[in-house]
Amino acid sequence: MSRNALYAVIAVLAVVIVGAGIYAYNQYEEDRSSLEIKVGPNGVKVDPPAQ
Q: What is the pTM of this model?
């Protein structure tokens, strides 16, 4: 394997790792700061985001 191909593989792996980290962080923030609204027989219940 040539040196340029090795650099390309390392660059692709770095991009994948950074992309996975950004995706995981966004999912964490979305779950943490989501507003929950429930409509049931007792009326409407709104749970604010967790702090």
A: 0.59
